[in-house]
Every structure is written in structure tokens, then in C-alpha cells.
Design a protein that fits this description.
Layout lengths: L1 H16 L7 H22 L5 H11 L5 H11 L8 E5 L2 E4 L7 H8 L1
Antiparallel strand pairs: 1-2
Length: 113
């Protein structure tokens, strides 16, 4: 799933930088939005890979949902600590969290919606 995330980020970067485009501006914007949405879905659903049965039932339930807060709430009901926590290093005292410059859950919800 992380490889797919990486490829979607690269594709989105190519669209937004002008390196690639669709036939006309409207379809380019739609392709950018689709890549962003698919990337956000990968981030959310990848937290459930070890919960295959729960993932399957949940995925069928929210496949057409467009509201990020509802989707995240449902995922959270299966895995309360699902949202990724960015770290930059580890030492004998533990993990060191990144202090900024990453996608927060609130930003996720706003982007997805």
C-alpha cells in the first residue's frame, strides 16, 4: 500500500507541476482530485490491513461514503489508533515525533471532503 501511496504522490506532483496533463484543464483538475482522494483512502484503509475481516465489512459499508469524518470514525471503531503518527528518529528514550509539516487528521478530513 505504501508503494501505491508513493506512486500516487508522484503522479499528483507531476500533474500539479505541469510535467503531465490531460487533454484540457478541467480533466487535469479532476485527475488531480482523484489522485488526492485515492491517496487519502490508502492512508486511512492501510491501517486495517491486519484486520482483514473487519476491513472487508467496513469497506463494503463505506465504499460510497464521501464524508471523511464518518469514514474515519468507522475505521477508528475497529482500530482506535489508526491514524499514522509521523516520527523522524528513535533512541534509547523512545520515538521522536515530527513536530510539524505533515498531514494532520483535521487536514485529512478537510481535503477529503
Amino acid at each position: 500500500m505504501m508503494w501505491e501511496c508513493r506512486y500516487r504522490v508522484e503522479t499528483l506532483r507531476d500533474f500539479t507541476s505541469g510535467k503531465t496533463h490531460c487533454t484540457y484543464l478541467q480533466t487535469t483538475i479532476e485527475a488531480e482530485a482523484l489522485q488526492l482522494r485515492k491517496l487519502l483512502e490508502l492512508i486511512a484503509f492501510s491501517s486495517l490491513v491486519s484486520y482483514q475481516e473487519a476491513y472487508s465489512s467496513l469497506r463494503n459499508d463505506i465504499v460510497k461514503d464521501w464524508h471523511a469524518a464518518r469514514i474515519l470514525h468507522k475505521i477508528e471503531s475497529i482500530n482506535p489508533e489508526f491514524y499514522p503518527v509521523p516520527i523522524d528518529s528513535f533512541n534509547r528514550h523512545g520515538w521522536h515525533r515530527v513536530q510539524g509539516g505533515y498531514l494532520t487528521r483535521k487536514q485529512f478530513e478537510r481535503l477529503y471532503d
